[in-house]
Amino acid sequence: MSKNIGSQAKEGVFWTVFFDSIEFVVSIGSSIILARLLVPADFGTMGLVSIAIQFARRLANFGFSTVLVQLKEVKDEHYDTVYIINLVLMALVAGIVFFSAHYYSVFFNTPGLELILQVIAFDFLLKAFSSVPESILKRYMRFKELGMAQSAGKFGTIISTVILAIAGYGVWALVLGTMIGSFCHRTASIRFALKYANWKPRFKFRRWALKDCFSFGAWVYFSTFVSFGINKVDYFLIGKFLGTSQLGFYERAFELMSLPRKQLVRKVNSVLFSSYSRIQDDNARVVRGFLRVATFLSFIAYPLMIWLFFVSPSFITVVYGEKWVGTILPLQIMCLTGIIDSYTLIFQPLMKAKGMVGHHARRDFLYLIFLSVAVFVAISLGHGIAGVAVGVTAVSLVRLSLMLNLAVRNLPMTVWDFIMAQKSAIVYGLIQIGACLLVEYFTRPWFAVDSLPMMIIISVVALVAFVGAHLVIRFADVDEVFDEIVGDLKKVSRKVPVLKKLGFVQKKS
Fold it and tell me: CB under 8 Å to 51, separation ≥6 — which residues?
C-alpha cells in the first residue's frame, strides 16, 4: 500500500481542490448576497452561536474518530465500539446544549440565542451517525466521495440560506440553512461509507477496542478544546464587551481572511493526515512530503493575501456595501495572519500522524494563553477590533515558531529547509507588493481607494506582477511544481467523465 500513497494523496488533493474550488466560488457569491440582505448583528449573533456549538462538539469529541484513521491496524470492533460511544456522547451533548441555552442567552444578554441553540442542538444527533463513516472514508482515502458529501452539505446550506434570507427570515435564514446543509452532508457520508467502504454499523462494544483508542484519543480530546479556545476566544471577548455589531464586522473580516485556509488547507489536511499516517515510520519521506506541501501552499497564500490586503477598501465597499466599512482595517491587519496560520495548520496532520499530539497540544495551550491576554488587553485599552486583529497577528507568529520548533526537534528538518521551501513565493510576493504600492501612489489622484476602478486595477496588477515576476526570474522549483501539478491533473482528469474527452487531458500517442 505504501508504494501507492503518493499517487493516492495527489488524487485526494485533486478531488479536494476540485470540490473546494466550486464551493469557493459559490461561497463568495452567497456571502455577498447574504451581506446585502442581512445586517452585521445577524452575523454577530451566529458568531455567538458558533462559540457554544463548537464547544459542545468538543465535549463529545474524544478523538476516537481521528484514531480510526491514525491506527496502523483497525478491526471491525474498533469501528463498532467508537460508533456506540459517539451515539451516547452526542445524545448527551445535545441535551446539554438544549437545556443550557437559556443561561447562555442571559450571559450575552441576547434573548434570541436561546431558541436558536435549542434548534441547532438536534444537529448533534445527525453527527452521531456520520462521524465513523467519515473516518472510514478518510482511512481508505476515498476523498472523492468525502468531497462529494461535504459539497452536498455546503450547497445545501448555501442554497437554502439564500432562499430564506430573500424570504425575509433574517438570522433564522443562517440557522435553518445550517441545519439543512448538515443533514445533506451527514446522510451523504453515511451512504458513501456503506457503499464504498463495505461497512455497516453494528451495536457491538469491546473494552479492548476502546482501550486501543483511548490513549491517543485523550490527547486529541484535550487538543480539540485548546483549538476551540484558539478559534473562539476573540469572538467570545468581542461579543461580551463590544457587542454583536462589532462582532459582525470582525467575523466578516476573519471569515474573508480565513476563507482560503478553510476551503483548502483544512480539507487538504485530511488527505495529508491519511497519507502521513500510512508512512509515519519513514521520517525522511514524511519531511519531503511536508516541505513539498509548504512549497505548494506558498504559491496560494502569498499572492492571495497580498491581493486581499490592497483590494480590501474597494472590495468591501463595492461588493458588500457601505455598512461593512468597519471590516476593512481589521481585514487588512489579519491578511498577515492568513499567511502565518496557513503554515501553522499544515503542521497539524504531521504531528497527529507522528503521534506527537501531546507535544502539539501543550504548545497550542501556551499559544492560547498568549492569545487570550493579547485580545483582552486590546479591548481593555479601547483599541477595538482593529487592536484585536493586531494582537491576533502578533501571537500567530509565536504559534508558528512553536510548531516549527517541535518539528525541527523531532524530525530531520531545519528552519532553513522550511524557509527555503517558500523562497520563490517570497521573492515574487515582494515584487507584487512593490507593484501594488506604485499603482496606489500613481492612481490615487484619479481614483478613490474604495472605488470600483481601483478594485479592478489592483486585481489586475497583483496578478500580472506575480506571474510576470516568474516569467522574468524563472525559479526552477516553480517550474517543477507547475509541471508536476499539470501532469497529475491530467492523470486524475482522465477519471472525470466530463473532462476525459477534452484534448488537453488525453494521453500522448
Answer: 232, 235, 236, 239
* In-domain check, residue 52: yes
Residue type, 187: T
pTM tops 0.90, yes or no: no
Residue 280 lies in a domain: yes
Which among 170, 195, 225 is the end of a domain?
225
From the DSSP assignment, how many helices (H) and strands (E) are in the chain?
A: 20, 0
Integer Cα distance of 46 and 117 in angstroms: 10
Grid cell, residue 9, equals 494523496
- Is a pLDDT exceeding 60 seen at residue 420? yes
pLDDT band at residue 504 under the 50/70/90 scheme: very low
For residues 119 and 18, what is the distance between their CA atoms, to the nearest angstrom? Answer: 33
Residue type, 220: V
Please give the tally of structural domains in the chain: 2
Which residues have C-beta within 8 Å of that of residue 12, sequence separation ≥ 6?
Answer: 141, 143, 271, 274, 275
- The position carrying cell 464547544 is 55
Same domain (yes/no): 259, 402: yes
Domain match, 364 and 439 both: yes
Per residue in 149-160, pLDDT (tens digit) is 777 888 888 889
| Residue 21 placed within a domain | yes
> Does residue 508 form part of some domain?
no
Domain that holds residue 270: 242-499
DSSP state of 188: H
